[in-house]
Amino acid sequence: MLAIAYGTRPEYIKVKPILDALDGRVPCRAISTGQHTDLLTDSVEGVQIKITDGEDRLNSIIASILSKENEHALDGVKHLVVQGDTTSALAMAIAAFNKGIKIYHLEAGLRTHDKLNPYPEEANRQLISRLADVHFCPTIIDAQNLEKEGIKDGIYVTGNTVLDGLSDEGTEYGDTVLITLHRRENHARMAEWFTELDAVARIHSDLTFCLPIHPNPNVKKHESLLTSVKVVDPLNREEFLEVLKKSRFVITDSGGVQEEASFFKKKCIVCRKGTERIAGLGTFSILCDKPSALLPLVLFYKNDFELEGECPYGDGHATERVIQVLYASM
User: Fold this and answer.
1) Average predicted confidence (pLDDT) for the chain
2) b/e burial code for range 304-330 (CB count within 10 A of at least 16 → b)
3) 113 lies in the same domain as 74
4) Fewer Cβ in 10 A, N or C end of the chain?
5) Reported confidence tier of residue 38, pLDDT bands at 50, 70, 90
6) What percent of the chain is predicted at pLDDT more than 90?
């Protein structure tokens, strides 16, 4: 049996095209680790793993997934797909490795080469790479990262499944600047980011700065600082993509948003010290490592926002390539 594990909404978005493409052709089990609720799909057999919270959330995730209570999730499984770089993906990979299950890593090879940035994602994905048998890399750069680390076999450049099924029909450059900020490494200075964003929005009042607020309490508790930014409730995927399609440019600390924005030819200001999505740096995206650097970048992108060239993160057919490898392996 093949199992596909996911727990967060971004993970689900990236594995759903694969679940849909399998469509009962092989026995498949969806395993939800439940960081974001209501993600189990109706299209395949599903198992919900219970995460028991402790003093340390990351350790709780690992301990829960490896506990006797949840070991049934991998009963009868011979092949496991894990997506991305979350702590639950690492824990599932460890559980599978200990049971001799073949591991497929979707979105493999991304690197900043700084284990603390982003934390804990960079360490998670490096550890998963040591356990995985098959590596589905979004770009040739990601594949080269694995080769430099001594991984020689099972590497496939597929593109990223997050782009599969997207259409650029209706894309235009409007007066909205879409903002997403939520990453753990920005929590300690989220108040600084929000204060600077609000100042930028006041200066550029001819643009609408729109931020779908992330529900994480470390983000939401600073919401009151945003008086000139349009703060909205979290958007579903379809709503988010519609806003993205019509935005002038994007301010984000998200990896997936960098990829989606590049598909729609939108430039990104990336509010991080570094990014593992380096294929678009200098053309599709630019780093902003501190709040005080934001204003000049906004001024630049406000007037120089149009993009040419192909999306560096895939052509919308990643799922087909992944499925071919899965079928050949089983």
Assistant:
1) 94
2) eeebeeebbbbebebbebbbeebeeee
3) yes
4) C
5) low
6) 85
The pLDDT-based confidence of 53 (bands split at 50, 70, 90) is: confident
b/e sequence 202-228, b meaning 16+ C-beta within 10 Å: eebeebbbbbbbbeeeebeebeebbee
Q: Are residues 202 and 226 in the same domain?
A: yes
pTM comes to 0.92
> Does one domain contain both 80 and 155?
yes
List the alpha helices (DSSP H) in the chain: 9-22, 57-65, 87-98, 121-131, 140-148, 190-203, 217-220, 237-245, 255-263, 294-303, 318-329
pLDDT category at 39 given cuts 50, 70, 90 is: very low
One domain for residues 29 and 155: yes
33 within 8 A of 88, measured Cβ to Cβ = yes
* Rounded Cα gap, residues 175 and 153, in angstroms: 47
Asked if the structure places residue 11 within a domain, the reply is yes
Q: How far apart are CA 6 and CA 153, in angstroms?
A: 25
Beta bridge partners of 4: 30, 81
Closest by CA position to 261, among listed 245, 275, 239: 245
Provide the number of structural domains found in the chain: 2
CA Rg value for the chain: 20
Task: Answer positive or negative: Cα dihedral of 143, 149, 154, 160.
Answer: negative
Query: Which CATH number is 276's domain given?
Result: 3.40.50.2000
Range of the domain at 12: 2-160+315-329
